[in-house]
């Protein structure tokens, strides 16, 4: 009695069988009589299967525990319940939202405008700018000082000293995948000088003079 995968070659008669069945061969024994041998054969078959997956950035395949970061076709060979090889094919698409240019820190004089920019190689991206005043990240909308909150360029109009050290970042989305940019810091410069102070409080003398 034999169980084999795909095929079995019977040493008794040298024949190869590829189907389950009962086979006999007649030999001559030591006494010169016919000797009939019966083979009860079970032929089992290997399995094949495939999976198709689309994931963001990377994918860990439970079948073999491997993590893949690139699109491609991958195979794993297992043993099925019948003891035969079982080949599984993974057709994998990895989607990556690649940010090619990150926001950079900005230094802006009070009352002027500030801008943060992000660029991506993703197809048909969408953008969501966020700010953090020290109390956590919040989504920005096109209102008040902010414009371009859903584009690749965020503009902050008429910045005020109270916005010093505010942080800004952008969530870039393409398809079902998203990536968060690095953080840009807004630094506000106070441009108050003599020209901004009531000159009536100053007396400059002697005037004119060529000495100290």
Textual characterization of the structure:
With 212 residues, the protein is mostly beta strands. 0% of the residues lie in helices and 52% in strands. The strands form seven sheets. Strands 12, 15, 16, 19, 20 and 21 form a six-stranded mixed sheet that branches. The protein has a three-stranded mixed sheet with strand order 1-5-4, with no helix packed on it. The radius of gyration is 38 Å and the shape is rod-shaped. The protein starts with a strand and ends in a 23-residue tail after the last strand. The model has no long low-confidence stretch (mean pLDDT 90).
Topology:
Blueprint lengths: L1 E4 L2 E3 L4 E3 L3 E8 L5 E11 L2 E10 L2 E2 L6 E2 L3 E8 L5 E11 L3 E3 L4 E4 L4 E4 L1 E2 L5 E7 L4 E3 L6 E2 L5 E4 L9 E9 L2 E4 L3 E6 L23
Parallel strand pairs: 1-5, 6-10, 12-21
Antiparallel strand pairs: 2-3, 4-5, 7-8, 9-10, 11-14, 13-18, 15-16, 15-19, 17-18, 19-20, 19-21
């Amino acid at each position: 009695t034999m169980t084999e995968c795909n095929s079995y070659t019977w040493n008794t008669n040298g024949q190869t069988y590829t189907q389950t069945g009962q086979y006999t061969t007649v030999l001559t024994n030591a006494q010169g009589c016919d000797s009939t041998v019966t083979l009860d054969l079970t032929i089992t078959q290997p399995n094949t299967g495939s999976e198709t997956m689309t994931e963001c950035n990377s994918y860990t395949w439970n079948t073999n525990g491997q993590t893949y970061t690139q699109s491609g076709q991958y195979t794993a060979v297992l043993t099925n319940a019948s003891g035969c090889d079982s080949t599984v094919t993974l057709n994998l698409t990895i989607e990556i939202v690649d940010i090619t240019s990150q926001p950079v820190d900005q230094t802006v004089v009070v009352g002027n405008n500030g801008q943060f920019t992000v660029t991506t190689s993703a197809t048909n991206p969408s953008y969501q700018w966020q700010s953090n005043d020290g109390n956590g990240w919040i989504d920005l909308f096109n209102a008040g000082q902010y414009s371009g909150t859903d584009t690749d360029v965020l503009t902050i109009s008429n910045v005020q000293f109270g916005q010093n050290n505010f942080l800004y970042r952008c969530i870039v989305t393409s398809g079902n995948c998203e990536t968060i940019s690095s953080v840009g810091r807004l630094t506000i410069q106070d441009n108050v000088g003599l020209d901004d102070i009531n000159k009536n409080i100053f007396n400059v003398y002697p005037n004119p003079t060529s000495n100290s």
